[in-house]
Specification:
Elements: E1 2-7, E2 12-17, H1 24-27, E3 33-38, H2 39-45, E4 53-57, H3 66-78, E5 86-91, H4 93-105, E6 112-116, H5 119-125, E7 130-135, E8 138-145, E9 150-152, H6 163-180, H7 182-190, H8 193-198, H9 200-220, H10 235-242, H11 249-267, H12 273-282, H13 293-301, E10 306-307, E11 310-318, E12 321-328, H14 329-336
Parallel strand pairs: 2-9, 3-4, 3-5, 5-6, 6-9
Antiparallel strand pairs: 1-2, 7-8, 10-11, 11-12
Helix pairs in contact: 5-6, 5-9, 6-7, 6-9, 6-11, 10-11, 10-13, 11-12, 13-14
Bound molecules: adenosine-5'-diphosphate (ADP) and zinc ion (ZN).
Residues 38, 40-41, 44, 59-61, 91-95, 117-118, 120-121, 125, 157-158, 160-161, 165, 168 line the site of adenosine-5'-diphosphate.
Amino acid sequence: MNKKNIRFASASVDFYFGTSFGTLKQIVDPSRTILITDQNVWDLHQKRFRGWKTIVVPPGEASKVQATVDTVINQLIQMAADRTYSLVGVGGGVVTDLTGYIASVYMRGIPFGFVPTTVLALVDASIGGKNGIDVGAYKNMVGVIRQPRFILQDIIFLNTLPQKEWANGFAEIIKHAAIANASVFRYLEEHGPAYFQKHKKEACALIQKNALLKAAIVQKDEEERSLRKLLNFGHTLGHAIENAYGLSHGEAISIGMAKAADISSQLTGFKGSSRLKELLQRYHLPVSHSFNTDAVIRILSADKKKDGNAINYILLEKIGKAVIRPIPIVDFQKYLS
Ligand code: ADP
Ligand code: ZN
């Protein structure tokens, strides 16, 4: 067990890296804790939930909605969960987002923690305190920023993770490397995805490094006024095409990062565009898509992060160094075509 307390502006979080799930009973009291997981994780890891009160939600992004919140809250009431209880989300980003949100509103807020079970949730979704739900086509439209008490990482859960979900997680790992850490980028170039799926110790170290990298950015700017925006690299275009074209989050942001790299070549003199695209492809991620430019620009125009008639776009200056640049929406036509 490797415990590290990380202090954010609003609260501090205990990170338990490389820690067995069994340790959870020393972190929270099983008689006053309710685990929340999804059906897939439950089916594959049922034995680990023995002895815990557990609520199981349907898997997938479609669950990240108010109706699931209502159902879970009714179950909490039936289980007589009071303010002395904690919730622990055991699952991917959908489960951690839902759990953090429910724990933030149930009885005006009870403590919560996370056991992320996907690469994406381990390096990204579980970290930073953003919890929330989707409303119709609008992703993360309703939510809170509230930190979990703890995050426990046990990569034993990754033994059952489908190939596609590894690629999704690697999209965020490559993003972190591209915006903030050139040496991680080179390390990812030295070893392909198969290496990390086979060598669990190295995967665990890479995941820990990425989790700390994200935590360090959030520590400096929890409310996303400046630095934290860099984590949106690839996400502006990514979110605009994700649901519209039925792409996974990793695929969508990979296409977004590739496009942002090309735009960077024109606006910042970035020289690493081909290098970034090669790395994305090596990790089984797409770097282009025949999306409808006009439709995408319409969606971008309604983006919640828009600033007047410009979009604050994240560009690369070099591998490991990102910058924010306002780009007028009218200019997007030429960059996207
Ligand atoms: P993400 O973590 O990518 O944000 P989800 O929470 O939707 O998104 O998880 C992605 C998918 O992986 C879901 O279908 C979920 O049920 C499944 N999943 C989560 N963890 C595991 C695991 N350890 N093994 C197998 N499938 C998992
Ligand atoms: Zn993302």
